[in-house]
Amino acid sequence: MSITLVIDNIPLKEFIANLNKMKLLGILTSLQLLAMPMNTDTMNLDKMKEVGESAYKIVQVSGLKPESALDIAYYVEKYETEIVDSDLVISIIKTESNFNPNAKRKNDGGANSYGLGQHKPFWKKHFQIKGSLYNPETSVKLTYLILENLMKKYNDLEIAVSAYNRGETRVDKDLKKGRNPGNKYSKKVLNLYNSLKNQK
Length: 200
Prior knowledge:
Elements: E1 6-7, E2 10-11, H1 12-17, H2 27-35, H3 45-62, H4 66-78, H5 86-97, E3 104-106, E4 112-114, H6 121-127, H7 136-154, H8 157-166, H9 168-176, H10 184-197
Antiparallel strand pairs: 1-2, 3-4
Helix pairs in contact: 3-4, 3-5, 4-7, 5-10, 7-8, 8-9, 8-10
């Protein structure tokens, strides 16, 4: 496998040094980042640094091996939006599956949820997305789409996170009755989210 030694006209040694937290994962992980088949021609240096920082955070909260964290981190950064940031998706995935792409869970209603973001098959049809729910890219993309949809609907982070976990129907019932729809899940996610946001 050949590795490009210059990125955006920056020598490899300087690039690795500039990864800040990413260098704590070791030079081999940084080299893997450069060798990944992830359209490096369209990914600038700042975005690659963000992938490295997200990988570092994933390793911190999950104990995942750096190379596995890097694979997930790439998709986390690839699909980040102005409404939903990568730290929120990392917090959701940590709480849902602890970054196990093969996770499967039976819900209260008897339906199964799958993958990193623990999605029901309904969501694939709703957003017209192809691919297995066990596929990390599919799961990360769906996590962003669902959260963005909920944020637009509720315009409130805690309520959106609660709806991701409990479903919109239950949350809407609570809101109509004047009750706070937040639960232990939303508190857990938001505590982790705030912790990641405060990292320097």
